[in-house]
User: What shape does this take?
Amino acid sequence: MTGTASGGGTHDAPELRRRTQELLAAHPVGSTGRPDFLKARYDAGLAWVHYPQGLGGLGAPRSLQAVVDAELEAAGAPDNDPRRIGIGLGMAAPTILGFGTEEQKSRFLRPLWVGEEVWCQLFSEPGAGSDLAALGTRAVRDGDSWVVNGQKVWTSSAHLARWAILIARTDPDLPKHRGITYFICDMTDPGVEVRPLRQITGEAEFNEVFLTDVRIPDAHRLGEVGDGWRVAQTTLMNERVSIGGMRIPREGGMIGPVSKTWRERPELRTHDLHQRLLTLWVEAEVARLTGERLRQQLVAGQPGYEGSGMKLSFARLNQEISGLEVELLGEEGLLYEDWTMRRPELVDFTGRDAGYRYLRSKGNSIEGGTSEVLLNIVAERVLGLPSEPRTDKDVAWKDLAR
Assistant: This one.
């Protein structure tokens, strides 16, 4: 495949291989520190090749990223620990690229990709989870800044984050979807308080975030004032693709551990469990191949609402597979390795025990959009079914019943 870069010139697989080998020659893996190598890779345009030149890319087709990744993996080059910085890579970066100023792109994208700055997402609130547009966190203009007050919840990585993507209400006199503005929030501001939110697993991977007179410069606004809902759609669609459309090998993900147990522990097998495992194995493989097709579609543009369907499938399969695994293990499935309160840096489904997978997967149908909301999105935006009647679309937010 060939393509024309935004900065001129033609990019194809042989050229990307050549550029990658030049990077490796100038920065040998064995003698170059990880941060220095990652910065050099970004500056060479090999971070995400479909991004513009000067922003970690070459304006090349997205599909050519696989060529670069394969060359670097073969050479033993370090990656940027994508699971740790997934919110930045999968949600903040495409939104900044799509709506940020040139100054914002230059400031935030490089340290984001290299992993120097972790990002979190300040969207959901105690009273605005499934109905996100009903959010009540307020941002009031004060000269060249905005003063933000409110509370966010279910915030992954807030205890690690340097920056946050934030949506807040800037005009309560408008209907709920039209009075929202999108900001980049400094998590080191003294008005930001992060509190652990302990989950059913015993860990506090999520957080509550309280915002008290947090000052955000207008230069950290993404998009126009009042246009935050449209900007947020870019974030949400990319989030659902990043959750439900992750690239995994055959028999990867949750189906891997239970399949391994089935092969190694014949004494646990029953006919009923066999039939259920076969069904879920096939469904997991179909979901994996559908995710691959979705990623190929991204070559032609931004993610669409199909990502909502993938995220739906991801949540359902994880919960059903983990339930089957616990049942297969019998009494062993009731064990749980450690209830210690911890604040992990990432979610590790396959590196933990069956009890953890079973408990943690319960959150899959909530995080990244509840399954109920995603079913509506698929029905209305993908299948074209009639919309549910809504009586609050043209009512000012301040007049809504709460």
